[in-house]
Write a structure and sequence with these properties.
The complex is a heterodimer of chains A (about 250) and B (about 120).
Chain A (H helix, E strand, L loop, with lengths): L1 H7 L15 H29 L21 H4 L14 H25 L3 H31 L5 E7 L2 E8 L12 H33 L2 H5 L3 H26 L1
Antiparallel strand pairs in A: 1-2
Chain B lengths: L13 H27 L4 H22 L7 H33 L6 H10 L1
Classes of the chains: A mainly alpha (about 250), B mainly alpha (about 120).
Chain lengths: ~250, ~120
Amino acid sequence: MATTATLGKKSLWDGGVAPLKASYGKLMMWFFLLSDAFTFSGLLITYAFLRWSTPQYNGDPEAFTFSTEYWPIPEKVYEAFPGFHGVELPLVFVGLMTFILILSSVTMVLAVEAGQRMDKKNVVKWMLWTIIGGFAFLGCQAWEWSHFISGTDIPTLGDVLVNGVWVENYEIFGANLTFNQYGPPVFAALFFFITGFHGFHVFSGVVLNVIIFFNAANGVYEERGHYEMVEKVGLYWHFVDLVWVFVFTFFYLI
Amino acid sequence: MEQTANIQVEPVDKSKIWGIWKIAIILAVVTGIEYVFAFTMDAGFVRSSIFIGLTIVKAFYIVSEFMHLGHEVKGLIYSIILPMLFIIWLIVALVNLEGASVKEKRGTTDYEPTVMVDDRYLQ
């Protein structure tokens, strides 16, 4: 009788119970993502802090020209599209990138949904689409970086340090970590750091997706009896999409 | 040879699939609204606030539906959402307070095209 009483009152600490009704792996993915969210918050707050403490352009947006003295208007910087040289298409390319990433997030949800139904064929199919979306986004970002680095046809004149010598009214084309044609040096540095850090997350996500894709195709999860790995990597992939939503707002819209 | 005869593939629940696409459509529409504001409204505090508000709407749908957090137990929801509230203080402290203070201490002023022209006439 005493035995049954102790069995009935089982302590949470005896094991066998999933805390918060989520598996160990999922819970740890959530807490990793929370820490990663802090990292990205730190980066975006750095962006906001430096922008807040740098001179702004208060004139007419139509008459805006690039200068190393004040922060640029984002839609004047990001207005190029592959194959449309010289045509001003503000924020169109970045809109395409957003669209690609949201779509790849949707295909990931569909893969998770198929996994919950033990539907191997559809898991493999949707994982493949997610991987294609990831590569498409990375390709877009590579193009955007190369355009940002090489710059526009018209240079910006600025005083810069070239090979240890101050040069006045130097013709600046594109951007590097020391100076750039769009605005203060820190503008390009933040662009490289924040979109680069996000791009690296996308790349890691694609690598994880590829691993999951092959495992699913080889029947590893079918043998295991559940597709929880798809859900865990799915969480990471959605987080990458989530961060892009914030980068998009703070970098390209505001 | 069908080796996986014991694996039962459950049929597709059409309403669930439609639910997923519905969230995708909401995200696309909210992004579209952001574009409308970006091209029709002058930059400023109000427009920035609208952008941040719409971003939070999008973040809510991604976290709650795509990442399924809205369907987890309350304890998990709070342990993810509550720590993020610290970020709000960090934004106020570092951006609004520290940023403004650094700008003032450096003595930097915003670029005003008309003011620049007036200065030249004075000299």
